UniProtKB/TrEMBL annotation:
Domain of life: Bacteria
Record-linked PANTHER family: CELL SURFACE PROTEIN, OUTER MEMBRANE PROTEIN ASSEMBLY FACTOR BAMB
Biased segments, Basic and acidic residues type: 1-16
InterPro entries: PQQ_rpt_dom (IPR002372), Quinoprotein_ADH-like_sf (IPR011047), WD40/YVTN_repeat-like_dom_sf (IPR015943)
Protein name, entry field: PQQ-binding-like beta-propeller repeat protein
Region of interest (Disordered), residue spans: 1-23, 37-59
Any Pfam family matching the protein: PQQ_2
Annotated ranges, domain Pyrrolo-quinoline quinone repeat: 436-505
């Protein structure tokens, strides 16, 4: 066995003995199977009934070397959609690292973020060609299953102005999660697209000829590429700002300003049902035209952070429907005296849990602060107090050996993007974070209590880039120049890989695949969970 996949069973005497016992047991099992196959009954049991062969179990493939480091984006059985680091092209690879097919050139946001999504049936990409069409491709061979342009759905839309907004993790395979095409907003738009195209003259007919309503949010049925619901429209003079899904994944929220006055606009992703609430932030220091970052905390509560004034919490007491008077909405605005809250940093795991987490970089203080907020069913997790139901569990804190000065923040977002949340049957999930005295600490995401921890003498300091890998039910993370896989249930070490010969490397993860970029070059390696 090479040093690229050296397990602790090879390096520690007790593990050698354990491995020897397993080989003996495996030999005995093989002999028993041979005798069984050679018996008169063949595949029959003693009573003459046919017996089913044991089901194949998920297991790791071998590491495969790749000429370019890759970022896994989505996985399907024995296949993975990756983005190459050398040319940013998207490819589908098999578990042996062989290219099955290359995706046509995909539109990008700020050079590196590919406008792509996937589920078990199809891959969806917005292409970098005239009209920015959205297409569905077969996992198996890349054949085109359907194609749609925004003007096919609404004549007053220009495809170059829209960006694919994939559903949040945990909703990728939901039939009630249409693909959303959102009018270019701050968080997905890196400048006005280069296009000379104009809307048809017929869009300027009628009583609002000067500033007609135009589509700003389009829902696309992932099965056939047709409109999932009537597109959401706003006035041509409106400015669409920050937009994002809420913590449950049910709502897609946007800041839409008309004549400089901002409003929250929320759309139910499954139905297109839309409501709004004017914000009225002038008494709290807001200036017309100021950009606003926000996050939807659930239960009609929002964290808002204007770029030129202090953040506030907004409770929407009543939403305004499209056919109601603009003053029908009612809100309550509460200034935040203590600065940014945990809810500014919302995340959703691939298993559907919504939570907030503050890292040392986001607070300037050592340690983590977290809060579990929503479950996989899209419902808020609530508890009771004297005033009734309030969102989610209590805040918890946990120490870590990472210090703000060590630049954890740049790793922090990438770290959380690797999805370190482990589901547990009948219990709240756990989250694997860098420890204070251990490489990894697994904390109950509801209470912050430690469930298990892992430490090793093969490297010093905390682990990083942890990811939960279903199928094999493991947490995989980097520790020094090593990659380590442990049981997601109790932290028992399953395997290690020594990457000291390539100067360690960063982990990239999606679904059942992990990739590593060599620290001393552009190459990388990949392995994924397969069923054989």
């Amino acid at each position: 066995m090479s040093t690229h996949d050296r397990t602790t069973a090879d390096t520690r005497e007790p593990r050698r003995q354990h491995a020897a016992r397993r080989r003996l047991a495996g030999a005995a099992l093989t002999a028993a199977l041979v005798l069984s196959a050679c018996s008169d009954g063949g595949g029959d049991s003693d009573d003459g009934q046919k017996t089913e062969p044991p089901a194949a179990q998920p297991q790791w493939s071998d590491w495969v070397e790749l000429p370019s480091a890759v970022t896994p984006l989505h996985t399907a059985p024995d296949k993975v959609l990756v983005q190459r680091h050398d040319n940013q092209r998207l490819q589908v690879l098999d578990s042996a690292g062989q290219e099955k097919w290359t995706v046509p050139e995909v539109a990008m946001v700020e050079t590196y973020q590919a406008l792509a999504s996937a589920d078990d049936e199809r891959i969806y990409v917005q292409l970098a060609e005239f009209g920015r069409p959205l297409v569905a491709l077969s996992w198996e061979d890349g054949s085109e299953l359907w194609r749609v342009k925004t003007e096919d759905i609404h004549k007053c839309s220009i495809g170059e102005h829209f960006q694919l907004r994939p559903p949040p993790p945990g909703m990728q395979h939901s039939d009630s999660a249409p693909l959303l095409l959102a009018y270019g907003s701050e968080d997905v738009f890196s400048g006005e697209p280069e296009t000379d195209r104009e809307m048809p003259e017929s869009c300027f007919d009628g009583p609002t000829a000067s500033f007609p309503d135009i589509p700003t949010l389009i829902g696309v049925n992932r099965a056939n590429g047709r409109a999932a619901w009537t597109p959401v429209e706003d006035g041509l003079n409106s400015v669409v700002g920050w937009s994002n899904y809420d913590v449950t994944g049910r709502w897609f929220d946007r800041i839409v300003s008309s004549r400089g006055a901002p409003a929250l606009v929320r759309t139910e992703a499954a139905t297109g049902k839309t409501a709004s609430a004017a914000l009225g932030l002038a008494p709290h220091g807001y200036e017309l035209g100021d950009s606003i970052f926000f996050s939807d905390m659930g239960n009609e509560r929002f964290y808002l952070e204007p770029s030129m004034s202090d953040p506030v919490i907004v409770d929407v007491e009543r939403w305004r429907a499209d056919d109601e008077d603009p003053d029908a909405a009612s809100i309550d605005v509460e200034p935040i005296a203590h600065g940014r809250t945990c809810e500014r940093n919302l995340h959703r795991s691939s298993t559907g849990y919504g939570f907030c987490l503050q890292t040392p970089d986001s607070t300037g203080e050592p340690g983590f602060t977290g809060r579990l907020m929503a479950g996989p069913d899209g419902q808020m997790i609530t508890q009771q107090d004297d005033s009734g139901s309030i969102p989610a569990g209590t805040y918890w804190s946990a120490p870590t050996a990472y210090e703000p000065s060590e630049g954890f923040g740049s790793e922090g977002e990438g770290y959380l993007g690797l999805d370190p949340v482990v589901p547990r049957e009948g219990q709240s999930p756990v989250i694997a974070l860098p420890g204070e005295n251990d490489a990894i600490q697994a904390l109950d995401l509801l209470t912050g209590e430690e469930v298990w921890s892992y430490s090793s003498d093969q490297a010093s300091g905390p682990g990083y880039s942890a990811a939960y890998v279903p199928g094999v039910d493991e947490v995989v993370f980097a520790h020094g120049s090593w990659i380590v896989g442990v049981s997601a249930r109790d932290g028992t070490e399953k395997w290690t890989a020594d990457l000291s010969d390539v100067d360690g490397g960063a982990i990239f993860h999606a679904g059942t695949a992990i990739a590593v970029k060599h620290g001393n070059g552009d190459a990388g390696r990949l392995r994924m969970v397969v069923t054989e």
